[in-house]
Amino acid sequence: MSSLMISSTTLLKRKPDMVGANIDGDIVMMGVDQGQYYGITGVGSRVWELLEEPTTINSITETICREYDTEKATCHDDMSTFINDLIKIDLVEVVE
């Protein structure tokens, strides 16, 4: 679990030890180190794709707003919450 302060410009990526598959647009994965299964649906699946390469919350927000035609402030809040949740369960890490 991360205790870092994550800003909108912190460079992030998904953990390399995650084994996953796209099943009908949803992501199902297993953390090798954690030994737990996880599932991500909806817009979260697209965010997971974006986290394959190092990126920021700001960049993810821009992409999601463009692709889903949503309001930027609400989207940013949602992306920040979602990504911080992924960090808390050790699925996403800060790029150093």
What is the straight-line distance between the termini? 16 Å
**Secondary structure tally: strands:** 5
What is the count of DSSP helices, taking H or I runs of 4+ residues? 3
User: What's the shape?
Assistant: globular
**Using only CA atoms, what is the Rg?**
13 Å
Output the helix-strand order: EEEEHHHE
> Quaternary state, please?
single chain
Structural class: alpha+beta
- Give the biggest sheet: 3 strands, antiparallel
Strand order of the largest sheet: 2-3-4
- Report the sheet-strand fraction: 15-25%
| Share of helical residues | 25-40%
The overall pLDDT, averaged over residues, is 89
In the predicted model, the low-confidence regions spanning at least 5 consecutive residues are none
What does this structure look like?
The protein is α+β, with helices and mostly antiparallel strands. It contains three helices and five strands, in the order ββββαααβ. The chain has helices at residues 43-50, 57-68, 72-88; strands at 12-14, 18-23, 26-31, 36-40, 92-94. The strands form two sheets. It has a three-stranded antiparallel sheet. The longest helix has 17 residues, at 72-88. The radius of gyration is 13 Å and the shape is globular.
